[in-house]
Amino acid sequence: MIGGVSQATVTLNEGSSYRFDQSHSSNGGHPLKLSATSNGTHGGGSEYTTGVTYNGTPGQAGAYTQITVGVGTPTLYYYCQYHSGMGGQASTP
What is the pTM of this model? Predict the structure, then answer.
């Protein structure tokens, strides 16, 4: 969930950085990943890593996924590394 909405569509603007806080215990076992393919590696795509950094272990204090969106970044999709169907779209206008 992002902002209390399951499979929310988020907008990521070029030239900006976004940090997804994964410190809440409900994130345990659900590492947030990004892909240019819907449902990421579960949908036949690969992990998108350009400008992406990870810190800590999801579900523990200080854990987050961060992306700095570069010019020309494709539409991205966020997904759980381990569970299919847990994600949504991250538009990059």
Answer: 0.88
